[in-house]
What does this fold into?
Amino acid sequence: MRSIIKIFGKLLAPTANRFLNLLKNPQAAQQSTQRQIFSRLLNSEYGRDLRIKAIEDWQQLPIVTYQDIEHLILKQIKSKNNILTSEKTIFYEKTSGSRGAAKSIPYTKSLRSSFNYMFCLWAHDLITNGLPFSTGKIYFCISPPIANLSDNSSDLSIGLQDDSEYLDRWLRWVLSPFLVLPPGIDRLLDVEEFKDALAKTLLKAEDLEIISIWNPSFLKVHLDYIQTHQIRLHAELKDRISSQRQALLLESQIPWPEIWSELKLISCWDSANAAEQANYLRSLFPSTTIQGKGLLATEAPMTIPFIAARGCVPLLNEVFFEFEDDRGQIYRLHELEIGSTYEIIISQKGGLYRYRIGDRIRVNHYYLNTPCLEFIGRTQTTSDLVGEKLHEDFVKDVLDNLQLEGTFFKSLIPVMQPAPHYILLLDRADRSTELIAQQLDEELRRSHHYRYARLLEQLLPARVLVSPQIPDLMTAYYLRLGRKWGDIKHQILVTQAIDVELLKQLEI
It folds into this structure.
C-alpha cells in the first residue's frame, strides 16, 4: 500500500506544481478565475436580468446573501431550468443553516470538481510533505439518512451523504480500497443503528490512519458511544477483532491511541467555535496530527491547509474572492494586508456570484505572494430577543471567564417561555448550576444592552441546565430541522429562540 500511495502522490504532482505557480501571481490567477465565472453568469437568466454586458461591469453586480436569491434557487428547483448559471445543475446540497432553516445549494459538475481539485492538492501535500502513511485507510465523515427524513421537498435532489461524495467518480474509484465505511449505510435510518454500525466498523479498522470529519464533536459522540456500550460491543465483536483490542475495549477508560495505534491524522474544523473541541481531540490523541480543514463550506471550498505554508492558502483558481473591511471597502485577494480582518464575498462555479458566505478571516502572512487566511468566526452572529444584542465573540469571552473545567459542550440559547431569557446548556459542570447561573448573569451584564434589558426586566435571569444527554438532544433537534448530522455546528451562541417542545426535553 505504501508504494501505491507514493505513486498516487506522483500522479498528483503536476496538478500541485501548477497550483504552486499560481500562488506566485495571485492577481493574474484571480483575473482568470473571474473571467471563467463571469462567462457562466453572462449566459444565464440571472445575468440577462441584471443586464450585465462585460466583465468591467462586475462592480454593478449586487452583493447578496442566500435570502436575497432564495426565490431564484426555488424557482430553479421547481422549473428544472438553469437560472443562475449556464451550466446544468446536477443536484442540490443542504448546508447546515447555522442561523435558520437549512439552505439548498445548487451544484454543477464544475463546482464539484472544485472540491475534487482541493482534495487532490491536500492529498499531495500530505503525501509529499506530511506523514508516513503506510495503509492509507481513511474514514470520511458520514451523515446517516435519518438526517433528511424531515425534508418535505421530495422533488429536491439531495446529493451528498459523506465527504467522499464531494469527489469526482474517478477519484472515488481510486480511493475505494482505502475507504472505511459501515456496511449498508443507505439502509440505516435510525441514529442509534448508525452509531452502532459505525462503532463496530471503526473498532474493526485496526489499520485506520486518517479520520476526516467536519466538527470535532462528531468524533467525540462516537467515542462516547463506544465507551458506554463497551461490554456489548466486546461481546459482539469478539471473533472479529484481535485479542489485544478485546482487552483494550474492556478497560474502564478506553485508551483511544492504543485502539487506533496507526492513526496519524484527524482532519476537522479547528478554528473559532471548533477550536476548543479540536484541542480536546488533541488531548485524546496526543501523537496524532489534528489538522484544521481550512475554510470549507457547502457553498465552496475556499482555503486549503498547506504544510509548507504554515497556514491555509486560498483556492484562487476555483473561487473568485472579494473581501470587505469594517468600513465597507471592497478588496481583491492581492490587496489584503497582514493582520487585518475581512468578511469574505465569493463567486463560485455553481451559480453564486458576489455571495456573502458569512465568514470573517484574518490575514496571517503571505506564502508565495498569496495571503494565508485564518477563519476567525461568523459575521454578525448576534442574538437579540429584546434589544440586548449579544454577539458570539462576547459570549465566547463570557464562557471563557466562567472557567468551566472539564466541560465539553457549551451553548447559550435564547428562550421565549415563560418570558425572554437565556439558558446555558452544559454536558457537565464542576460546581452547582445556581452558582454558575449567578456568575453567568454577572458576566452577561458587562454588555450594556443586556444589563439595560435586565434592569428593565425585559429579560429574566439567565439559567443553567446540566446533563450528559444535552448534546444528543440538541443534535436531534437540528436533525429535525433538516440538517445533516456530520456537519451540525453546535454554536456557542444560538441566535434563534428554541421551541417549547425542545425546552421541555432539556428541562427533564
About this structure: The CA atoms of residues 257 and 286 lie 8 Å apart. The first helix runs from residue 2 to 23. The first strand starts at residue 89 and ends at 95.
